[in-house]
Amino acid sequence: MSFHELLTRTVRAPDRVIRFGPHPDQVIDVHLPKRETAPPVILLHGGFWLASYDRSHTRPMAAALADLGHPVYVPEYRRLGQPGGGYPGTFDDVAAAVDLVTAGRRGVVVAGHSAGGQLALWSAARHRLPPSCSWHGKPAIGAVVALAALSDLGEAFTAGLGDGAAARLLDGRAELLGLTDPVRLLPLAPGTRLALVHGVRDRLVPVDMSRRFAARAGAVLTEIQDAGHFALIDPLSAAWPAVTRALAPAGRQEAAGVPHLAGRARPGPAMVTTTR
To answer: Locate the AB hydrolase-1 domain: which residues (predicted)?
Structure first.
């Protein structure tokens, strides 16, 4: 499956749209379940932070998660190629959206795909930022599920992934990696469950990036042998069950025999599972 195939899927419109700023892309789509039986999910889309990729390609995933009982919140954010996109506006918007959704809640899952995975991991590491930083915060995130995540922003910066998108995100300023790179901000907030899922056949974000991040963070990594980049956000793909298991609360994972490792202050050994 491809990015363009996801765009052709017929899915229902969001139940609500929440605005959190004056820019047209400072909005959050809300997909509500018929009956809430699972934790709320904030779903951060990818696309190398580029304006040409918006939240619309995640609607099949958002609708499928709502059908599983999750209230799903899909923020849009200012992106490269539009006013305010990149540093600092992209991070301003994601921080504002996450804080808005998590306020007054507990156990919210933040899931992110590709560049959205970088933003999801960063969201759960904002307690590590200097108190003087406007992004510093401790949102009530119960779990992070990083799907084919650009978890090492420094590697993406130096390797020129996405035609140099990471360097453009930071305006070419490598010194900003200390405030924006998830791997440099580890550990995540205490008690935050962390799961990574990555397709071995991913040609856009190498699976080795998730392997190294999992080892550094002491996190669960599920590798899917026959999956590429976009299979992880496609509810019709063979990879989808692994994604839903990663999103499940720890008790449900263990009941189903899925390995679980809670976030910890000191990294432990990575746990890797392989599936087809």
So the answer is: 41-235
What whole-number distance in Å separates Cα of residue 238 and Cα of residue 253? Answer: 19
Count of structural domains within the chain: 1
State how far Cα 264 lies from the chain centre. 19
Inter-residue contact 153 to 87 (CB < 8 Å): no
| Helices within the chain (DSSP H only) | 3-7, 59-67, 89-102, 115-123, 153-159, 161-169, 177-180, 207-217, 240-247, 250-255
**Which value, in Å, is the radius of gyration of the alpha carbons in the chain?**
17
Q: Tokens for 155? A: 């590697």
d(CA 6, CA 46): 13
Residues 157 and 71: their CA atoms lie apart, in Å, by 34
Range of the domain at 256: 3-275
Indicate which CATH number applies to the domain containing 256: 3.40.50.1820
Q: What is the pTM of this model?
A: 0.90
Q: What is the pLDDT of residues 67-107, one digit of tens each?
A: 999 999 999 999 999 999 999 999 999 999 999 999 999 89
